Amino acid sequence: MGHERRTLRGVELQADRVAELAHRPVAQLRRRDVAIALLTVAAEDALTSLPAIRRGLLAAGNPLSAPFWDSTEAILQKISGHEATFGDVHGWLEATGTEPTAIIGLHVWEEPDARSPLQEEMHARLVGYLEERVAAGEIDPDDLATGNEEARREYLAVQERWMTTPLPDGRVPMTVLLDEQDEAFLADWAAADAEARAALQSVLETVALPADAAELWLTLAASVAAPQGDPLSEEDKEFARAMEWAEDEDLDFGDALDDADGDEEPDEMSAAIAAVCALDHFDWLAVMSSLVTGGPGTPASAADLARYVRDFDPDKIVGLSLAVLVAEDDDFPDEDEDEGADGESAELDPTGFEDYDDFDELSIEGLFLHVTSMWSVLGAIDDDDRLTPLGWWGLPEAMRRAWAE
After folding, report:
1. Which of 61, 127, 281, 361 has the highest local Cβ count within 10 Å?
2. Which residues pair with 259 in a beta bridge?
3. Residue 185 near residue 358 (C-beta atoms within 8 A)
4. Given its phi and psi angles, is residue 360 left (phi above 0), alpha (psi -120 to 50 degrees) or beta?
5. Eight-state DSSP code of residue 91
6. CA R_g for the chain
7. Tens digit of each residue's pLDDT (9 = 90 or more) over 252-283
8. pTM of the predicted model as reported, rounded to 2 decimal places
């Protein structure tokens, strides 16, 4: 029997081709092996291949089961008709009984071509463990294929137990995977800091700024955008006193959040820090670009700053890759939301920020209210909420320092 054969419609898979892809004999093929092989060809070709694959498996004494073949034909029909979602396809794969669930606890498996060596190792180990459980009769793939909810819950529980149990070498899969994920996030954020700083530099190079700097003022201004240290530290308390935000008795902020039963409002300092942390690189770069370009006297109220974010055109800044700046931005739709009516993914146009219905200008304005109150104390904006000469020089320099930390 040949590996595969050409037909008038395309490629028809044979059972021994599936075995070659899975690196195991036809008689030992698992449902997951067949499913993954079918996804390597067009859905129409996969449907055409089903009878040949079934005959090959039957001849090898490995017929699999009717529920598997029924579910396979159903999902291939949906894919062929452009009706299947990513969740539909992955749900079918998981129902083979040896494909890990996409999300286990706080961990999300990347797609195969995007997995790190650690993810690839742990994924393969989990697949092997699930194969053992299927062979022992502890997992029934037919129950999964027919949509048995109790079977699906137990299937996830089996994986969660494995993920939180130490391996022979002492590593706990969930722990090491989440640690790697955290490291990757911090690295991505540092890269975003660096690129935003470089983009801001390109803006600063277009205007003349004083060469000298008031270090204390710049330190305070940088702390507005990037608060440093523990919220309960003496460093932050001194910062609050310097800005005349609160009296000493008001500086034990954060304690109420720890001791509260969930009904208490956060204190002013905690609310301000939370608001600042909610603003991302895109928001700050939009504001700084507008203020630097506008110069002293530029409107700088919270509403004005939100408008600058809404209207910001990053294409005007040479060398800026907006994809880096908004990689973690909830204002942009995710893959599931960014889907056209025909089921195909729509192309994301990050430069058309104002076109997204979920951009909440009032919420952004609310976040910037905390910022403008601090800028006013620093003298960066005047009583009419307009940029002062000091703010025109100092705010972008302070932001550059914050991104360099």
Report:
1. 281
2. none
3. no
4. beta
5. H
6. 28
7. 544 444 444 445 555 677 777 888 888 888 89
8. 0.53
